[in-house]
């Protein structure tokens, strides 16, 4: 699968190297926009080749050295360490999947950061919210807080709690 997809990606990469505007796009976009799009696509293509190669080598190494069965045993130990029953398959599986997700996110983070902050910024796509980002974030959080303050007592809290009308009781206050 990796070889076939790499072959297709290589064909696309070769097509991206053609410097002339295709006849079907003449009159639709300018040569300048075509060049910018082509340069961006070539950078993304180079990055994709490296990322795909590192991913396939990492996955092959994990399979060859049988890391997954080893981690399955270790995740049972993590469940026991947390004071839970390691014989519970659901807890064991959840610990295993949580570990795999943490591993996946950690190993993919450098590629994601490079893609966003180097490639995207190089081609002018990463503007990081502009000068008013803090105001936008504050307004969003303020609006979300107001919505949650309104919705929680009416819709969410009654799902988990039973509310009864409270009667007036002034006996302990001396009123």
UniProtKB/TrEMBL annotation:
Has UniProt tagged this entry with the keyword Signal? Answer: no
| Key words of the record | Membrane, Transmembrane, Transmembrane helix
Transmembrane residue ranges: 46-65, 132-155
Q: Which residues form the CAAX prenyl protease 1 N-terminal domain?
A: 12-128
InterPro entries xref list: Peptidase_M48_N
The answer to whether the entry has keyword Acyltransferase is no
| Protein name as it appears in the record | CAAX prenyl protease 1 N-terminal domain-containing protein
């Amino acid at each position: 699968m990796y070889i076939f997809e790499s072959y297709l990606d290589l064909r696309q990469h070769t097509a991206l190297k053609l410097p002339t505007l295709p006849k079907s796009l003449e009159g639709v976009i300018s040569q300048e926009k075509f060049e910018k799009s082509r340069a961006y696509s070539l950078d993304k293509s180079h990055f994709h080749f490296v990322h795909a190669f590192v991913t396939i080598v990492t996955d092959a190494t994990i399979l060859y050295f049988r890391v997954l069965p080893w981690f399955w045993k270790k995740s049972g130990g993590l469940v026991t360490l947390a004071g839970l029953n390691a014989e519970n398959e659901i807890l064991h599986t959840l610990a295993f999947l949580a570990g795999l997700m943490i591993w996946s996110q950690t190993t993919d983070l450098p590629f994601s950061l490079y893609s966003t902050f180097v490639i995207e910024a190089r081609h002018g796509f990463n503007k990081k919210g502009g000068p008013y980002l803090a105001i936008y974030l504050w307004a969003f959080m303020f609006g979300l807080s107001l919505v949650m303050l309104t919705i929680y007592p009416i819709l969410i809290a009654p799902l988990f709690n039973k509310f009864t009308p409270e009667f007036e009781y002034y006996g302990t206050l001396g009123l």
